[in-house]
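Appendix B, example 12.
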Amino acid sequence: MSHDFIDSTVNNSNNNTGGAPVVMHKHHIIPRYRCIEIGIDPDFPENIIELTRLEHAMEHHRRFWIHGDPRDLGAAQMLARGEIEGLPVLRGKNHNRYGVKHTDESKRKMSEAKIGEKNAMYGKKGEDSPIYGVKASAETKKKMSERHKGKTFTAEHKKNLSKAKTGMKHSDETKKKIGEASKGRVVSAETRKKLSETQTGKKRGKYKKHYNQ
């Protein structure tokens, strides 16, 4: 199942977005999975239309009722986010793949399928990004924050993050932007205390390197 985004937006104040740009989805009239089954390219121009996220969900829901394919039901649930009456949110035990784990081979294939130019978001930065100018509401930010509270990384995850950052250097332009963003920023006493605690004694990287050998 695949859902692509089109790098065009519409300013629709009637979609409960507060006038923010609405990301348009690329919908295949003949579904991708069906095109693959019958051996045709799913991306021929006549097969693609632009829909909003909710319209996209409703179209897959309509197809499910006509053809009964569970793949359309899954697509509708994922896209609707609970906004279609009677259609549960595709999350947790409601997800048709709940508890299913991918093999290492499967993970490798999925990764390779999204590398570089194969990725729908490849090269789309700044104004070219389909979500350029879209700002998360205070409620969305709160939900994101609550979702990450208490989350801890495994030692292996930390090691992989460290490895990914090794040798990475900021460009002069990035350094300039970071500096400008930090100008005038006031750090609260509580934040300074927390920063101090994280850099105390054995928590310091240099301490481990020079004094723990």
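The longest helix spans residues 53-67. The longest strand covers residues 4-11.
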